[in-house]
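Dear support,

I submitted the protein below through the web form. The confirmation email said the job was done, but the results page showed an empty box. After a refresh the structure appeared. I'm attaching both so you can tell me whether what I see now is the final result or a partial one.
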Amino acid sequence: MEKPGRPEKKRLFGLSLLLSMLVLILEGILAVVVAVVYGITQESPNAGGGSAMFILFLPVVAVFGIMVAGSVSVALVFPAAWLGDVLGRRLGGREAWWWVPPAAAAVSLVLVVAVVAVSGGADPAAAAAGWFLTTVTITVPALLWRSRRERIFKPVTLWGVAAVMLTAVLGGVGLATGVLKEYRPPALTSADIVGRWSDGQGGTVTFTADGHATAVEIDDDLGGWDPEDDATDPDGPEGADTRCSGQGTWTYEPGGGTWSQEVDLTIDSCGFDVWNVGGTASRPTLYQYIGDPDSWDLYVLRRTDGSP
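What the results page shows now:
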């Protein structure tokens, strides 16, 4: 509490900058936890190895996060805190914390408008969501930036870590109890594979109940396959035909669980790897990875004949 006759001591710019960076880093970790929990509930391929790669690059991610937090603090948080004080003095006669949220909204609006202008337009709903999230993100550190409270780093760290841990625990409990539904590929049988499947670009595979298969214009060069390039240049970047057609056989392997289901399609003129099972029970898919599995670029077949 400010003592009469003594002006309240302001925190040095450098300490305010460090405090803002700390808050932004904690917010970033919280966002990652939420994104991971949300991602578990969403349809995704079984790109094994991604977690290990993330751990290997964790030091680089940490350094990058610190750089981003510093840049955001200088470019967005400090202007929001400064503008909030200016608005308070001009419109209210004194600095007050409640001017900071509208100042943060104004600063974030400038950023969103600039991004939309550079990108050539954006969905209004996405732009509004981006504006709201950016405003919330910079409001908290902007409020703390103007705070004159001493010894604030410790409570901010403790509360921030507690928020991250609580979110992670609640997410884990939600997944464990089924309140949040973890995504798993549909459990198929051989009968579910029978039918006509399409890649959506003219390529089809027809599976018959007796184990035979017919492929028509299926892409066979998935090491660096690009759907846009392939749609305009069927001969591929090196002038070789990347699509194959022919007849062969297929088998379904249930594996040890829904993530390990495989469809082994053998056609002499095609060099396929095994096909993984994805999608949902109502709309199953067969897919292979395009290039590096960690990229999650997929070549997908979807059933088109209305089979159950």
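Response: this is the final, complete result; the empty box was a page-load delay. The CA atoms of residues 88 and 96 lie 6 Å apart.
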